[in-house]
Design a protein that fits this description.
The protein is of the alpha+beta class. Among the domains are: 111 residues, Helix Hairpins; 82 residues, HSP40/DNAj peptide-binding domain. It contains nine helices and 15 strands. A hairpin with a 2-residue loop joins strand 12 and strand 13. Helix 2 packs antiparallel against helix 3 and helix 3 crosses helix 5. It is rod-shaped. The N and C termini lie far apart (83 Å). Bound molecules: zinc ion (ZN) (2 copies). One zinc ion binds next to loops. The site of one zinc ion has 8 residues, from loops.
Length: 366
């Protein structure tokens, strides 16, 4: 049982969100409001257990990491005190009695009003090529959906019977110290007749957890770390509230050759000495196949040659960046005598060239 689902909150929910969700559900399923309703009582226990963990930042962190928290696993080894369930229920009843007390005086805050469903957060991992191409990607996820058994109401119709909570009276009495309050029975809404019971399919929540697949439209050229929103595919809302959204964080695998910088793609192009000196045309990989790169005579290592419009498509307007070819002159490892001899001759012919001119000027000055 997922505690977040139980409380109907997202994993990123704040402590206030958790408290609010818990209070609303505790009121809905409190045994006082649903006397003799086993489904509601079970749900109430689960809600209390979920709040015991998610309402405590330390225990919530542990739960987020371990996924479970039970006394068996978190025993003396971690110094974590066991889960005292009876204490929880007791505490819950106390606080919820307080809420009911407030209701008696009309402080009932919009209980059961429409509420937007929680947003969901997911990650979509794409290869470099997939990110460049874009398109529709399916993403499997678990989401809370409206229960079909009860159309989201949480209860199902049954043959009318006398309400066991008020014994057909329609009113219940409760004593607080020397004061006695009379209020309409919550179970039968003051009618004295029960014509519905908690929906078995959803345990009265009105929602069920279900695996679903959504289609994420990915713009061509989407970059690593981008966040896409798929509207209205998050958790279903409550009481007619709108559904939440799904936020998809995109992860893009690195490419073995291309390095992306904004919409430009950088590529290191090794060229041989003679190609750099004499100039050459070399075939290089680009996104959509190969391109012929013109290396001008006298190209130095580190020099950049830009191929306009051969970079990544912009995810905003589809316009493509540039491909930036960065030249690396690669020195040959000479193994044969003839090549060595040719290079020696090359040195003799070009020996006077002042490759270290600035050193010589410095040394002459003494
Ligand atoms: Zn249902
Ligand atoms: Zn009743």
């Amino acid at each position: 049982m997922d505690f977040y689902i139980l409380l109907g909150v997202d994993r990123a929910a704040s402590l206030d969100d958790v408290k609010r969700a818990y209070r609303r559900l505790a009121r809905q399923f409190h045994p006082d409001v649903n006397p003799g309703d086993g489904v509601a009582a079970g749900r109430f226990r689960e809600i209390a257990q979920a709040y015991e963990i998610l309402g405590d930042p330390g225990r919530r962190r542990r739960y987020d990491v371990m996924g479970v928290e039970s006394p068996d696993q978190d025993g003396p080894a971690t110094g974590f005190e066991g889960f005292d369930f009876s204490a929880t229920i007791h505490a819950v009843q106390q606080s919820t009695f307080g809420d009911l007390f407030a209701e008696v005086f009309g402080a009932d805050e919009a209980r059961g009003g429409p509420e937007r469903g929680a947003d969901l957060h997911h990650t979509l991992s794409l290869s470099f090529a997939q990110a460049m191409a874009g398109g529709e990607h399916r993403l499997a996820l678990m989401r809370q959906d409206i229960c079909e058994g009860c159309a989201g109401t949480g209860h199902a119709s049954i043959a009318a019977a006398r309400c066991p909570a008020c014994e057909g009276d329609g009113m219940v009495r409760s004593a607080r110290g020397h004061m006695v309050f009379t209020r309409p029975c919550g179970r039968c809404a003051g009618s004295g007749v029960l014509s519905q019971q908690g929906c078995q399919a959803c345990g009265g929540l009105g929602q069920v957890r279900r695996s679903d697949a959504i289609v994420v439209p990915v713009p061509a050229g989407v970059a690593d770390g981008a966040r896409l929103r798929v509207a209205s595919r998050g958790n279903a809302g409550r009481a007619g509230g709108p559904p939440g959204d799904v936020y998809v964080a995109v992860r893009v695998e690195e490419h073995p050759l291309f390095r992306r910088e904004r919409d430009d793609l950088h590529l290191i192009v090794p060229v041989a000495v003679h190609e750099a000196v004499l100039g050459a045309r070399v075939d290089i990989p680009v996104l959509d196949g190969t391109a012929r790169l013109r290396v001008p005579p006298g190209t130095q290592t580190g020099q950049r040659i830009r191929l306009r419009g051969r970079g990544a498509p912009s995810p905003r307007d589809g316009r493509r960046g540039d491909l930036v070819a960065e030249i690396r002159v690669t020195l040959p490892r000479l193994l044969d005598e003839r090549s060595k001899e040719l290079l020696r001759q090359f040195g003799e012919i070009n020996g006077r060239e002042k490759v270290r001119e600035q050193f010589e000027r410095f040394l002459e000055r003494g």
